[in-house]
Amino acid sequence: MAKNELLGGALWDAYSKKVSERMDNPTHLGVITQEEADKRGLKLVVADYGAEACGDAVRLYWLIDANDTIVDAKFKSFGCGTAIASSDMMVELCLGKKVQEAVKITNIDVEKALRDEPDTPAVPGQKMHCSVMAYDVIKKAAAQYLGKNPEDFEDEIIVCECARVSLGTLKEIIRINNLKTIEEITEYTKAGAFCKSCIRPGGHEEREHYLVDILREVRAEMENELQNKTDLNSKDNSEFANMTIVQKIKAIESVIDEKIRPMLMMDGGNMEIIDLKNASDGYTDVYIRYLGACSGCASGASGTLFAIESALQENLDSSIRVFPV
User: Fold this and answer.
1) DSSP label of 26
2) For residue 23, what are the contacts with CB-CB under 8 A and spacing of at least 6?
3) pLDDT tens digit string along 197-212?
4) Residue 54: active-site member
5) Mean pLDDT of all residues in 84-99
6) Which of the residues 94, 130, 160, 198 is marked catalytic?
7) Cβ-defined contacts of 153-159 (< 8 Å, 24+)
8) Which of 30, 45, 230, 320 has the fewest Cβ atoms within 10 angstroms?
9) How far apart are the first and last CA of the chain?
10) Distance CA 20, CA 35 (A)
């Protein structure tokens, strides 16, 4: 039976292509034996981490040379497909790095590496926690190799001990995914899903940071940033609207010289402003003429016109329209 029949098309579409491929065909799945390590003259490190709360576990194998570089790595994972895909990517991110560098890899790094598009999460929110194991098993392997405790590598404040989710991870996840509720945070990270002490004061264990406070603070920061951006745009638009025709033309020429003209000249073209009018509907209409190679390039005219108009709207005023003559 096909996966989309088992999971439902909508759910399967929530996984990136990279995750789907690594679920079915993990690149680094396997075992490295001591015999193989001895033949290659390398140090073998084997580390285990089990997330009992969600039933997943991973075993990580590293082969390390005399320069502390991870020259080969494999994994075995006991858990869901997302855990397999995350473990596979985790191993790939380790390869070629020194142990001291690999220990800096986080679950956020793993999840981002699995994305098809930079701004689109690689997995559904309820499976985001599966990449958390990567951070812990790497710490255990590094600690074993360097003769330290895993906690020695902890430079993040852990908010949820059960799911091992840090303060930095929570803030980034809230921002990236525009999360607005505690339920959404739990769905994306599993923070607060188990003992619940990290959600708000009053649980069985007192904590320095609580999800309710983190969410409130990050949302306030996001709203302030949005308001500041809106205020800045309004100020810029107001300044342009109050300019004289001559001032507007100079401002437009300045943006064109910086953002547009170099691009046109690289292709042997150019442009000039023919006229500017303040339309009765509140728009500022700019009339331009293409020169050189641009004048005879019908296929690129619409794309170039869109680029010019977008640059002027973004840098001067959203009410600017551009027309070729």
Assistant:
1) -
2) 15, 81, 82, 84, 85
3) 899 998 777 888 999 9
4) yes
5) 94
6) 130
7) 153/103, 156/106, 157/208, 157/209, 159/191, 159/198, 159/207, 159/209, 159/210, 159/211, 159/214
8) 230
9) 59
10) 33
The three-class DSSP label of residue 243 is: coil
Q: Tokens standing for 176?
A: 């990236």
Res. 230 pLDDT band, cuts 50 70 90: low
Give CA–CA dist 225/223, Å, rounded. Answer: 5
What strands lie across the sheet with 320-324, from one edge to the other?
Answer: 269-278, 284-292, 320-324
CB atoms within 10 A of CB 230: 10
272 φ/ψ angles, rounded to the nearest 5 degrees: -145, 150
Q: How far is CA 174 from the centre of its chain?
A: 12
**Would you give the DSSP letter of residue 257?**
I
- CA pair distance 316, 130, nearest whole angstrom: 45
Radius of gyration of the chain (CA): 27
Tokens (6 digits) for 253? 């020429």
Q: Is 130 a catalytic residue?
A: yes
250 vs 238: CA distance, rounded Å: 16
Residues belonging to the chain? 325
Q: Per DSSP, which regions of 114-266 are E strands? A: 158-160, 165-166
CB atoms within 10 A of CB 304: 21
Cα 199-204-210 angle, rounded to 5 deg: 25
| pLDDT computed for residue 4 by the predictor | 44
Put the strands of the sheet holding 56-64 in their side by side order. 43-51, 56-64, 70-78
Q: In the numeric block, which tokens belong to residue 62?
A: 């590293």
CA count, 13 A, side-chain hemisphere, 118:
0
Can you tell me which residue has the tokens 């003992």? Answer: 195
Which residues of the chain form beta strands (DSSP E)?
A: 43-51, 56-64, 70-78, 158-160, 165-166, 269-278, 284-292, 320-324
CB 114 within 8 A of CB 26: no
Q: Answer yes or no: are the C-beta atoms of 286 and 269 closer than 8 Å.
A: no
